[in-house]
Amino acid sequence: MNSQTLQPFGQHLLSTVWHAEHDGQRWHAGRLAPREALPVTVAGGTVHYGLSVFEGLKAYRGANGRPHLFRPRDHARRLQQSALRLALPTVPEALFLEACAMLLAAVDDDLPPMGAGAIYLRPTLYASDEGLGLRPGRRHGFTVIANPCIDPPRKQLRLWAEPVMSRAAPGGLGGIKAAANYAAGLGGLLAARDRGYDDVLWLDALTHTALCEAGTMNVFAELDGVLTTPPLDGTLLAGITRDTVLALAAQRGLATAEAPITLAALRAASAAGRLGAMFGTGTACRLVEIVEIGTDQGPIVPTAGDTVETFYQALKQAQEAGDEGWNWPVPASTVATAAVEAASA
Ligand SMILES: Cc1ncc(COP(=O)(O)O)c(C=O)c1O
User: Fold this and answer.
1) Could you give the CA distance from residue 214 to residue 195 in angstroms, rounded to a whole number?
2) Contact status, residue 135 vs residue 179, Cβ threshold 8 Å
């Protein structure tokens, strides 16, 4: 382990990245490079038109001391879906896996011991040619950035349900991991903070009555004993942690639902004692308790219970040690071998 003290998510970015270029015809062989040496033009589609999509996945050190990636193929597939929507060249799964495995091998010293943290990988796909005018990019870069970080601390968040601004509308980009979504979301985050809340809770763009997702998390509510999360209607990200929680809940025999959750339903359930815990999920934060939802009509306060701790621990176990029945953690060595085999096939 490197002597650098582990920091919270997003702060310590390693200099070594993995980088490949697409010339409009094909991907050229990727390589390790110093991040500072990569050319990024100010006069192209990424800076001007937001032609950029990305992923966020974590590598952990397992009990055997070896590194693994959590659900890397699901992240690779999601990046492909994001790319298609913005007319970016798709990154083949084998290339995505090769990039993650090669970078991980190069920065192995920075991967914390089991239980202490992870390396967050940020595969990023973007237009790299110059020229103004809205059109698909002609050249593209695919770069993976590495961020060693501490195990996410247990957090309790107060969310502000944004009544006016929207992050994503039907038919828009909300279902993909496009950089533009985060630009659209910044105003909501700042408005929430101005009101003394930690983060924004986005509502549906048409009526501002139903929950969508939080700033960088999917949301869950225990409603009438059913662990409920908003459906994937294209306006929110299909979180891989969300999917993992749904699977872990089903494994435990708990009732789950992917169904609309209105503020009115939450308020009524809260008044009738039918609202249990609420939490948010994401790769960076793992799982955080939502202790209040601020609205123009007054706060909604979920009921604390064991659910948050149960799922935090279940997720941590699944991410670090694996879970019988699923092949969620993929050893980095397997990933590298599969990538080499695919390349030579
Ligand atoms: C907007 C948004 N929603 C949800 C999530 C959770 O997705 P995942 O669990 O795949 O990290 C994220 C995190 O990347 C996000 O940025």
Assistant:
1) 16
2) no
Question: What pLDDT, on a 0 to 100 scale, did the predictor assign at position 230?
Answer: 98
Q: How far is the CA of 272 from the centre of ligand 1 (A)?
A: 31
Q: Which residues contact 202 (CB under 8 A, 6 or more apart)?
A: 162, 166, 167, 168, 185, 188, 211, 212, 213, 214, 215, 236
The mean pLDDT of the chain is 95
Which ligand 1 atom is at minimum distance from the Cα of 244? 9
**Cβ of 46 below 6 Å from ligand 1:** no
Nearest to 39 by CA among 57, 17, 55: 17
Judged against a pLDDT cut of 70, whether residue 339 lies above it is answered with no
Q: Phi-psi bin for 307: left (phi > 0), alpha (psi -120 to 50), beta?
A: alpha
Which amino acid residue places its CA nearest to atom 2 of ligand 1?
216
- Host H or E run for residue 101: helix 93-106
- 58, 217, 279: which to mutate for ligand 1, most atoms within 8 A of CB? 217
Four-point Cα dihedral 191, 281, 19, 129, nearest 10? -40
Average pLDDT over residues 169-174: 97
Per-residue pLDDT for 324 more than 70?
no
What domains does the chain contain, in order, with CATH numbers? 16-151+324-344 (3.30.470.10), 156-305 (3.20.10.10)
Cα(271) to ligand 1 centroid in Å equals 30
